[in-house]
Amino acid sequence: MKILITAAGSRGDVAPYTGLGAALRMAGHDVALAATAAHAHLVHTAGLEFRGLPADTRGRGGGTGSGRELMRTAAAFVTELGRGFADAVGDDTDLLLLSATTAPLGWHLTEATGTPSAGVYLQPTAPTGDFPPAVPGTRSLGRLANRATGRFALRMVDRIHEPAVAELRDRLGLPPLSPSAMRRRREQADWPVLHGFSTALVPRPSDWRPGLRVVGTWWPHHDPGGRLPAELEDFLRAGPRPVLIGFGSMASGDGERLSEIAVRALRRAGLRGILQSGSAGLAADGDDVLTVGDVPHALLFPRLAAVVHHAGAGTSAAALRAGVPAVTVPVTGDQPFWAGRLAVLGAATEPVPFPSLTAERLADALDRVVHQRTYAEAATAAARHMATEDGTGEAVKAIEELTRS
After folding, report:
1. What are the beta bridge partners of residue 117?
2. What span, in angstroms and rounded, lies between the C-alpha atoms of 342 and 317?
3. What local confidence, expressed as pLDDT, does residue 62 receive?
4. How far apart are CA 303 and CA 293, in angstroms?
5. Measured CA distances, 23 to 27, 97, 321, 397 (Å)
6. Using an 8 Å Cβ cutoff, are 242 and 304 in contact?
7. Nearest to 288, CA basis, from 352, 245, 322, 247
8. DSSP string covering 73-119, please?
9. Which of 318, 308, 304, 305 is nearest to 280 (CA)?
């Protein structure tokens, strides 16, 4: 079966699909992954065919603007994405697997081409009374209000996709149809969506419609024979377990300020640290601190005392799998949601909002998360739960069942 996975966004929005794609390829399927050019290397390294999408998240401000600015940025990104989206889908595609970002475009391709499709989401998007929507990640306001805000969040997504959908349907020769009308069609048809996160973080809500499944985390592909860089190995062995501080694809251009905060906080808390440069460009020198680039979370995290991160879905899951507690500094999008889930589990301190981050607040949070055993115990309990899940295996079985039905 020829399968095309489509994903768009930052590295964390794409990397989990390399693991899912590799598992589908091992099961005998021909798999391509469509993403923006910045992620071509990730896809090729996993042994998958890469297909380019036109939009690019680089240089879009790091996600720290006002709500209206973020809406405009998202709409511009999706419109750019939609203009080349149809080109990525070959005539020989047997199944289209759509991320939460690409699904509102992919549904129209499915209508035009007749290609079967399913959702492969990294966050919960369907409204539920159990918790508020993942974006904007507000606190729970009760079951009725949670569902209402969940529906409102979907309407905002519809608005973001309106220009792109109008252009795409015109190009495909389809009559006009709003994103909200198409979404309701998919919901009424119980369109299948597999969710690639752990039930340790988000159990499946009891009020979700049929067709929505939580199967477990899809871990990014990495070389099973890979090793950490020698300099990093030497640092890890040279003293007590360090703390990793990194913000992933967030905070571009804010590296100097964040690096100073990180080093001051580490030294105030009496801890050794590793700064992961990321998009922010974190960097520092010293006997008690080391700067690194991209390294596999699966190899590094189990050897840490704690992780300070932006609460992206992938980093949140990786820290939990390693049984390592966290201090979360959410920036935007679904990050406040995941930060809140970690705090509810007891595996992280209460989130430190990015605009409120200071060396003093970070040092205080680090002191608590490293020295109060309850945080590590909660993370270890979650890790045991996650070890019972086989997210990619369950997804492969579900996908193959869908194509047989």
Report:
1. 96
2. 9
3. 47
4. 17
5. 6, 14, 19, 10
6. yes
7. 245
8. HHHHHHHHHHHHHGGGS-TT-SEEEE-TTTHHHHHHHHHHH---EEE
9. 308
pLDDT tens digits, one per residue of 152-201? 999 999 999 999 999 999 999 999 999 999 999 999 999 999 999 999 99
Cα angle 199, 42, 236; round to 5: 75
pLDDT tens for each residue of 206-227:
999 999 999 999 999 988 788 8
The string of DSSP letters for 354-368 reads GGG--HHHHHHHHHH
Residue 71 contacts residue 157 (beta carbons within 8 Å): no
Phi-psi region of 270 (alpha: psi -120 to 50; beta: other; left: phi over 0): left
| Other residues' Cβ atoms within 10 Å of the Cβ of residue 210 | 7
List all residues 6 or more positions away from 85 whose beta carbon is below 8 Å from its beta carbon. Answer: 6, 53, 102, 105, 106, 109, 168
Is the peptide bond prior to 336 cis by the omega test (within 30 degrees of 0)? no
Q: Which amino acid is at 219?
A: W
31 bridge partner residues: 3
Q: Give me the half-sphere count of Cα atoms (radius 13 Å) on the Cβ side of residue 352.
A: 22
* Rounded distance between C-alpha atoms, residue 207 and residue 205, angstroms: 5
Q: Which two tokens stand for residue 176?
A: 């006009």
* 230 pLDDT more than 60: yes
Mean pLDDT on 246-273: 89
Helix segments in 88-211, DSSP class H: 103-113, 143-172, 179-188
Locate 388 and state its tokens: 């019972």
* Dist. CA 115–CA 112, nearest whole Å: 8
Q: What are phi and psi of 131, to 5 degrees?
A: -160, 160
Q: How far is CA 74 from CA 40, 57, 88, 97, 207, in A?
A: 22, 10, 21, 21, 29
Give the Cα separation of 383 and 271 in Å (integer): 24
Q: What digits encode the pLDDT tens for the residues 267-310?
A: 999 999 999 998 888 999 888 999 999 888 999 999 999 999 99
Q: How far apart are CA 309 and CA 253, in angstroms?
A: 17
77 contacts 58 by C-beta, under 8 angstroms: no
Q: What is the mean pLDDT of the chain?
A: 91
Q: Considering the entire predicted model, what is its pTM? A: 0.91
Alpha-carbon 274 to chain mean position: 22
pLDDT greater than 70 at residue 60: no
Q: Using CA atoms, how far apart are residues 116 and 403, in angstroms rounded to an integer?
A: 8
